[in-house]
Predict the structure.
Amino acid sequence: MAIQQQHSDAHARWRPGRVINGSSATAALDERLAKGLGWFSIGLGLAEAVAPRGVARLAGLPGRRTLVRTYGVREIASGLGILSERRPVGWLWSRVAGDVLDLATLAAALTSPRSRRGRVLAATAAVAGVTALDVLCARRLGAQVEADGGQSDAVRARTSITIMRSPDDVYRFWRDFTNLARVMRHVESVHVHGERRSHWVARAAGGLRYEWDAELVEDRRGELITWRSLPGGDVETYGSVRFVPAPAGRGTEVHLDMEYRVTGAGLLGGAVARLLGGGASSLVAEDLRPLKQVLETGEIPTTDGSPSARLRDAARGGRP
């Protein structure tokens, strides 16, 4: 009963798709607005970094080339941060802080005899409008994150596949987690530590590697395996795999449901993970196909159709 309650509590915390007031359309609009602000920040930052003299002249701030270039670097960093998360509340508030700094700089320029007052006032109005937009977006996304229990950028992947083996056979193969590194292309290695803990290394696009430790939450032979990651890894993840007898004795339906959030590997790693988020289920399904192949035939085919590995003994659960 304690394990089941733990399973329910953990699953309740991971619901990245929930939105406040039941309005998914509003939530999607807010997230698109955040991404737009991220791209705007990068575009502005590049202009300030590459052509600081021109931007300074346009804003009525002659002679402030170094300051404008510095602000450009800040804008680029904020933009990358916003694009690296689905609900980038912290990065949006960092933009607000930058906006306040910009407004203070423009206000000081109004008292300088070297500045062009008309251009400074126009730039101040533009920055004030963007600041209001940043504050609005940060507040709305912050409310959504709070409603989601604090998880702002988790990705969910759900897929299933039918394998012509018994639930017990499929469970037994999966339960030896080292087998998964041998058949799933995105899993580089798995090292088991004791009965309930394991260390995972996964590969992503561009050669990025993610590592984390996981522990079993629930383990029912031939039926269900659930797990969650431990603190300190590059990834926070929670998931379950169910082994259900297929109708008419046609093997086993494997139902995989998992969620993950990249916490390490820097801004680039988080951005890549978010870009892959929309296709997470297809990536997981791609990993399940060789699992089906090895359990049904004992071989994993290469791209040309020839077997690249033979795992017949493991697929048979060690039976001769």
Remarks:
- Residues 1-23, 265-279, 303-307, 309-313 have pLDDT under 50 and may be disordered.
